[in-house]
Amino acid sequence: MARKGDQPVKLSKELFLGLIPQHILDRGLIVLDETLIKPIKRLFEQRKLPKEGWSDDTIRLLLKVLSAIDTDKDPKAARIGEREARITSPLVSELAAGFNHGVGRSGVLIDAQPKAAGASLMYQIANRLAEDVLKKFGIENIKGAYVIPLATGMSIALVLKVARDLTGGRDVVYPRIDHKSPLNAISLVDLKPKIIPCKLDGDALVSDPSNVESAINGQTAAILTTTTFFPPRQTDDVIAISKIAKEKEIPHIINNAYGVQSPKIMNMIRSAIFKGRVDAIIQSTDKNFLCPVGGSVIAGTDEEFLRRVAHSYAGRATAAPVVQFLAAILSLGENRYRELIQQQQEYYNLLKDQLGEIAEKHGERLLKVDSSIAIAMTITKPRIAHEIGAKLYTSRVTGPRGLPKQDSTFGTCYDEYPTQYLTINAAIGVEETDIRTTVKRLDELLKKTPLS
Amino acid sequence: MARKGDQPVKLSKELFLGLIPQHILDRGLIVLDETLIKPIKRLFEQRKLPKEGWSDDTIRLLLKVLSAIDTDKDPKAARIGEREARITSPLVSELAAGFNHGVGRSGVLIDAQPKAAGASLMYQIANRLAEDVLKKFGIENIKGAYVIPLATGMSIALVLKVARDLTGGRDVVYPRIDHKSPLNAISLVDLKPKIIPCKLDGDALVSDPSNVESAINGQTAAILTTTTFFPPRQTDDVIAISKIAKEKEIPHIINNAYGVQSPKIMNMIRSAIFKGRVDAIIQSTDKNFLCPVGGSVIAGTDEEFLRRVAHSYAGRATAAPVVQFLAAILSLGENRYRELIQQQQEYYNLLKDQLGEIAEKHGERLLKVDSSIAIAMTITKPRIAHEIGAKLYTSRVTGPRGLPKQDSTFGTCYDEYPTQYLTINAAIGVEETDIRTTVKRLDELLKKTPLS
Amino acid sequence: MARKGDQPVKLSKELFLGLIPQHILDRGLIVLDETLIKPIKRLFEQRKLPKEGWSDDTIRLLLKVLSAIDTDKDPKAARIGEREARITSPLVSELAAGFNHGVGRSGVLIDAQPKAAGASLMYQIANRLAEDVLKKFGIENIKGAYVIPLATGMSIALVLKVARDLTGGRDVVYPRIDHKSPLNAISLVDLKPKIIPCKLDGDALVSDPSNVESAINGQTAAILTTTTFFPPRQTDDVIAISKIAKEKEIPHIINNAYGVQSPKIMNMIRSAIFKGRVDAIIQSTDKNFLCPVGGSVIAGTDEEFLRRVAHSYAGRATAAPVVQFLAAILSLGENRYRELIQQQQEYYNLLKDQLGEIAEKHGERLLKVDSSIAIAMTITKPRIAHEIGAKLYTSRVTGPRGLPKQDSTFGTCYDEYPTQYLTINAAIGVEETDIRTTVKRLDELLKKTPLS
Amino acid sequence: MARKGDQPVKLSKELFLGLIPQHILDRGLIVLDETLIKPIKRLFEQRKLPKEGWSDDTIRLLLKVLSAIDTDKDPKAARIGEREARITSPLVSELAAGFNHGVGRSGVLIDAQPKAAGASLMYQIANRLAEDVLKKFGIENIKGAYVIPLATGMSIALVLKVARDLTGGRDVVYPRIDHKSPLNAISLVDLKPKIIPCKLDGDALVSDPSNVESAINGQTAAILTTTTFFPPRQTDDVIAISKIAKEKEIPHIINNAYGVQSPKIMNMIRSAIFKGRVDAIIQSTDKNFLCPVGGSVIAGTDEEFLRRVAHSYAGRATAAPVVQFLAAILSLGENRYRELIQQQQEYYNLLKDQLGEIAEKHGERLLKVDSSIAIAMTITKPRIAHEIGAKLYTSRVTGPRGLPKQDSTFGTCYDEYPTQYLTINAAIGVEETDIRTTVKRLDELLKKTPLS
């Protein structure tokens, strides 16, 4: 069989000669080259996040070309395995962007699949971009990153599994975060959370590194810290804790669910890596990179640790979250992402101002908590925080949480927080209208239950 | 400005090195090359109908690459004309397959548009394929063909305009066809139809070339003949009439609306070109090439005549019918189209057998008419042919026509045809189930009105 | 057969009971109703341009539902006509948005097609919106409008055909516009242009209504006036000419190619209709409504005249330009369209300021011409206007025209215009960056050829 | 706020009145109702696998309507959470079929998400169909089933986690299957495989239930059996083992990766459920239902067990594998799926005949193993099985495996299998051409290395 793969795949100008006038053809080929061909070539040459975001058409072409390489697209292939990416209808293939073989191999998530050269290339590129975007936006001292086709919680499980195997420990030292996913993750890999209670520091709920330190013992499999949660819970002091982790030789995992959008948090993580021990940092793709729910990026400081994570995954996986991340990050590009991060900060400040005003107007106040994404405001009885949250939902405001719930303090990260409150986010991608509408509707709601 | 257009647009293997193992990459690039790149290169090199039909993905890639060349896709272009293909939303562009500038220039339909190199290339290729498919399927003695973004009727008008200008004549000698579109076409370009009545030859309605000959005079702008109509109307004797046209030096235009599917008709036209005069042959894209309604192919035997047709069109035009034709013909390929033509003949025979049987059963008979596409069956009173057609429509059988209508004989091509009848088509693309269902429903209908 | 059509097509809430909690379901159904169902219902109830533009998803749903009604989508239909919208592949159908039967009937463009209930509904709605948008944006005294699947030039031909038949005249009185399409249109329907030369009025080229009046005689089939052309050619005085048309009883057709974007022009046309005679007003869909090239809207003041136009079209037609217009106008909505019109005016002023500056800097000046869309600037020798236009094209500025060309004055609308000039447009949809880039590149070009 | 959700969402016939003639409208609405509306209504009413497969258009409409319900589609929503399904571009949303919020809630995979009513409905329906298809195709005695957005291996991990928690055991009794995914799954949830070696029974490798029984002890968390693997490994005797599981009160999990296509295997599982204990049965969506890799269906016989599985998942998840399964199964319908199962059996027999012939011709023989999907053929030295597999791959035959590999017996499920062999699958969806091409290429390869 002739080795067609040896030839460059090219469309040279000669092909089009004689069909249209030369100057029009030249003009057209410049556009073709600049908008479609060059960006794709540059992506594969540099394997970095492009400065300028791509158009949907360019991304579509990339995905089409790559998915066309998988064996299920080969009309001359004889396909006689038990898994051959046979698909019932064009729509079903379209729903997978043509990556019908998924990604990964039975034993190792990131390995190339012989039947899916295209999906394998796609995945490698996605991983390189994931690594690059994290490096460019604050943690240049990581050693690698993988896009995992699992949301943050399940990815935490994968990483904890590796920590468990490395240490033989049974416990995860975990400064209290009232979020079910990480708790499920801990339980999935048969570990126990050793919850470190929060302390009240003014309005803020903070974890104390010295409590983390004293909780560590021979049974400790890992420390799991958290950078992003609803105020009044503040970011864990990952720098101090990473120093402890280094000293105690305990794996340290940072749940950085939506921290990429915060230069301050990213900066803290970078310092933590420099000054102490951080084994893995896990970030949500949807919450940071404006793509659909379902993926996460696991970054690491040690290639061997990352390799073990890839070996922990049981089997192959859906390509969808990887493709979605890749498309989202290419669509953004470095410049647009930087802009969005700046806008987030501006909208955060807007939210703070606006919310402060109506808090004062209605006898409430903003909690004093160090956060760059979300804000909490007191809710005073007879107002019921949880009801206000529910009413906002039915008036088409999504996202705010009223806490504590009447039947439980889970969610507050504290057993007896002194006041009810409502949290509101100005996360990346929020728009001014979201903030103004929310504040307006909240204003109306508060008016209905005056304090006296 | 650097001349990027001089470089071949290529994706060489080196780009992907180090991302996945070499043997997987090689295997993948073979598929890429064979399924996507090669067909497109070969199309531009050969500019002929491919043997094998293309997948939708390959066609999509071709259209995407071509439409990406138009200036409206150039992010660096400054666009300051009155027409810049600015589009309100991605969907709207998608509805034009990205060819937002349409095709053609103000003065000449087939000329390249400076703002639309891609659409211009696309149109040229469509024209080459149109010419090639007609040559391959029977009329290899044409000199060129254009895909016109107008259905058959309007294309007849364009051609008649040229004939009118060439001759200075006012009349179109037109063997009677009871079809409004060509009559509208004649009228649009300010000509008068000079209708040649049909003769009854057994069951068949035929036109007599000698009547055509005697109708020609100094006012004759063109002869318009027809190859395909509902039986009992038979194909005009285009060979005899082309000889008359040659002798009398009168432009001869053949309305070959759905004749490409019939090797017999195509053969007749070829002979007519050899033996006499044929200026233009017009065929529907939808009826012959299984694409949506809206386009036609004008073929000619003289390049100057065709050039004049292209100059007759007033302005630029929608690219859609051209794109649809191009996609349809690439999707078919030569082999599949040949198969479809063979199947048509088989299904025609099946229809004839089936219809013959139920005709006999219900006291009717098939009209003896020379046709290879449609069949007519007598309808005897008290059965009302027109009502049977209407009832078939409401019982979800589309296509049959019951004639004559109660209030008019228009449609029969004859003033007093001796019987009512129903016509049914087994045109290209018909499936066995269409025929069997139709016959079954017709059987039920006839049962309800027994003859005695 | 049961009459399913009698039942309302509904998805009631009960269908979803028990699947998800009630309050989430309620919340979801509100969105479904408001974003998808309501807009579609309201569109059919009111048959007017919506205030707010639709999302692509809503438009897509409308098109999907309508195209699903055509008989070629009916899996139970037996299809045995010669035209049954059989399609080779899903892509080909997609390229027609599923409207594979096109629009219109053999004899009348706007009539419903029995095989295509959906396309027929789609076309009717498009026509109602076309009428409504023209009424809302200035000419509320029209009596109807049709979207024609032909660009402006060919639509002018259709209208002239009707005028020709009504009057029996042979000439079109035509204040000089150097544009090939309308001249082709006149010729297509076998009329002769009787060109009324322009007069020089300062810098402006204007037509003199009294010359129009004196050109009218027994051979006059129509007067064709023009509202939009490149400066220094100014808008014809359609009010004065409409009065003449009324008095002389001559059909008056206004080529309003891209005039909808100009409130001033629309106002003039409204007055012309009130005060005189206007039979038809023709506007481009692409130049006014940001949709792909290929359609136009013919508006009329007399229903009978419009009906005749619809009868002039020979056959059925591609649905694509109609669908594209419908999608574009729904995407815009009244509010966004109004905004775009305001922006156009702002950008026109910006262009004027910017161009004025660099004209002065390089020893040129802006021509004093009354226009709200385009601007012309002198080009003085040794600079060659036509070369500057060509150089702008190769430096990726599309649209500007340098006139007169070296070998012809066609394009200037005048035989010996006293200066060379360059025209630049700030047409609807232009963006600030287009203007600034153009001015910058022009500045660089002029610098290279200083005047002294 | 008015409760719009209380109104049925309906498009009644009245909406369209006056636009097109009544009989055409009636005809069209029948098609609309039958092809789009009825199937969707029936799906929600019955919540069962439809008899007839759906067209892609109908599926697309369903997905569009459901995804339109999620809050991120609500233009009036104010979105101020940390996760609001904000998406960078239309393409990115399209890659998720609009289900940008994914599925599930933080604590429970199958719970409705308040922000995603549409995704929640979609997921519920997918689960109902998954349950129904399994019941219809053989295991009507299950109590429920969930579509899990994880491939088989990871789903095994979820189920084992539940078994581990229920029993407190540490070991998984596992009749030897040399497949990395289940081993990774066992390890992920911190269990140890207790491998039960296979016995050689003629050519076949079988597991002995009595060895399973004797391996069970106080540390046993679960028994994991396997129905589908490459011959010569035969299906585990799940009936006998389920009886042991019942007697010993040990959770029994069946890895039924691609067994749904085999009526014989499904029948065995049904009997196992009746006669013994089966806690969960896990099947791949891609290998059974012709959809892309990435999902699985976990069926159970106890609702509480299933509920626990849903609680084991850590967080929300990508909707993609669920959507892909839903689309695939709707596209198939019951009838087509039954046909495919019958065809699989026919092609299996064809493969057996063909392969038998060339085996004999080249001095090899088929291994006598009870299987209805795959076949193994001896490979005798000097032929090297593993090389033959590799050569088939490069000659574009995907799927065959040559074993044992030169450096390991992993894959054979046996330490010293007496012969090398090649396995070939005739799995569901295989086509005749795949088999004939494979056999032909294998014939050529064997010819090159004659045995003597």
Q: What would you note in describing this structure?
A:
The structure is a homotetramer of 452-residue chains. By secondary structure, chain A is an alpha/beta fold. Chain A folds into 2 domains: 117-333, Aspartate Aminotransferase, domain 2 (3-Layer(aba) Sandwich), CATH 3.40.640; 336-448, Aspartate Aminotransferase, domain 1, CATH 3.90.1150.10. Chain A contains 14 helices and 15 strands. Chain A has a 7-stranded mixed β-sheet with strand order 3-11-10-9-8-4-5, with helices on both faces. In chain A, strand 9, helix 9 and strand 10 (280-284) form a beta-alpha-beta unit. In chain A, helix 1 packs across helix 2 (56-67) and helix 7 runs parallel beside helix 8. The longest helix of chain A has 42 residues, at 320-361. The N and C termini of chain A lie far apart (87 Å). At the A-D interface, helix 2, strand 2, helix 3, helix 5 and helix 6 of A face helix 2, strand 2, helix 3, helix 5 and helix 6 of D. Strand 1 of chain A pairs antiparallel with strand 1 of chain B, so a sheet runs across the interface.
CATH superfamily of the largest domain in chain A: Type I PLP-dependent aspartate aminotransferase-like (Major domain)
Uncertain regions spanning at least 5 consecutive residues of chain A: 1-9
Largest interface chains and counts: A-D, 114 and 114 residues
Largest sheet of chain A: 7 strands, mixed
**Name given to the CATH architecture of the largest domain in chain A:** 3-Layer(aba) Sandwich
Rg over CA atoms of chain A: 25 Å
What is the CATH class designation of the largest domain in chain A? Alpha Beta
The count of strands of chain A amounts to 15
Helix content, binned percent of chain A: 40-55%
Tally of discrete structural domains of chain A: 2
User: Oligomeric state of the chains?
Assistant: homotetramer
Alpha carbon gap, first and last residue of chain A:
87 Å
Strand residue percentage of chain A: 5-15%
